[in-house]
């Protein structure tokens, strides 16, 4: 089991809840902070002696009188992983958009995602145990939806197309914008082919439904 864990959570009740779970797991050293900047600072200091093995963090942190360089959990995870690539990360958040959760695993390399909900303490305990055993973990009610997202992997190119459509750009005018930005492929046929592939994969009938669906997922 882990011996040294860092908690980054700005809500006192949630912070206390995580601490209780780790107490039940008999983790010897648990440090907790309410600000992202403090979390990174604590991690830096730990590298000089006994480094933290696991970071448990929320994604959203409310702004207050104290100015922060790191604004949210995503930035914190990236900064911490850049500093210590071996650091394990569990995200404990109320986020429910499947696209966002999927990207946390694919782009930031998190090890587990636990959604704040009923029985989240049990889920968090399972997540810590799973990550300790070199496994990934997703809250039970999110497992199947997130796996189904893998049928379509959204590339940066896809996201550019979706954002342009979301901004009101007509599909027939997208190639010109792609050419101006030197983005390839930029022919109308290429754009149409990719848009149709996304609609087919997500089983939607038109661009309006595609944009609405991707917004719900958190892709755009």
Question: Explain this structure to me?
Answer:
Helix 7 (156-166) packs across helix 10. The protein is elongated and about 60 Å long. The chain has helices at residues 12-24, 36-46, 73-83, 98-108, 120-132, 143-148, 156-166, 174-180, 188-201, 207-217; strands at 4-8, 29-33, 54-57, 88-93, 112-115, 137-138. Helix 3 links the parallel strand 3 and strand 4. The protein has ten helices and six strands, in the order βαβαβαβαβαβααααα. The chain folds into two domains: 4-149, Response regulator (Rossmann fold); 152-217, Arc Repressor Mutant, subunit A, CATH 1.10.10. A six-stranded parallel sheet has the order 2-1-3-4-5-6, sandwiched between helices. The protein is α/β, with parallel strands linked by helices.
Please tell me the CATH architecture of the largest domain by its name: 3-Layer(aba) Sandwich
How many β-strands, per DSSP? 6
CATH topology name of the largest domain, in short, is: Rossmann fold
CATH class of the largest domain: Alpha Beta
Give the helix proportion (percent range): 40-55%
Number of helices: 10
Structural class: alpha/beta
Distance between the termini: 38 Å
**What would you call the shape?**
elongated
Mean pLDDT across the residues is 88
Count of discrete structural domains: 2
**Order of helices and strands, N to C?**
EHEHEHEHEHEHHHHH
Strand percentage lies at 5-15%
Largest sheet at a glance? 6 strands, parallel
The residue ranges in which pLDDT falls below 50 over 5 or more consecutive positions are: 144-151
CATH superfamily of the largest domain: Response regulator
């Amino acid at each position: 089991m882990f011996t040294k864990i860092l908690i980054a959570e700005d809500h006192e009740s949630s912070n206390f809840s995580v601490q209780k779970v780790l107490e039940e797991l008999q983790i010897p050293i648990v440090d907790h902070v309410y600000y992202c900047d403090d979390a990174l600072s604590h991690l830096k200091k730990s590298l000089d002696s006994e480094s933290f093995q696991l970071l448990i963090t929320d994604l959203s942190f409310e702004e207050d009188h104290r100015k922060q360089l790191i604004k949210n959990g995503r930035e914190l995870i990236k900064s911490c992983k850049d500093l210590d690539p071996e650091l394990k990360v569990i995200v404990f958040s109320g986020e429910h958009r499947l696209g966002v959760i999927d990207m946390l695993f694919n782009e930031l390399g998190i090890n587990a995602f636990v959604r704040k909900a009923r029985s989240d303490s049990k889920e968090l305990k399972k997540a810590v145990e799973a990550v300790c055993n070199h496994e990934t973990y997703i809250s039970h009610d999110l497992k199947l939806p997130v796996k189904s997202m893998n049928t379509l992997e959204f590339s940066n190119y896809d996201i550019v197309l979706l954002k342009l459509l979301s901004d009101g750009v007509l599909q027939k005018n997208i190639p010109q914008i792609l050419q101006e930005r030197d983005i390839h492929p930029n022919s109308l046929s290429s754009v149409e082919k990719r848009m149709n592939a996304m609609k087919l994969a997500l089983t939607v009938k038109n661009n309006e439904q595609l944009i609405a669906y991707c917004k719900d997922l958190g892709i755009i």
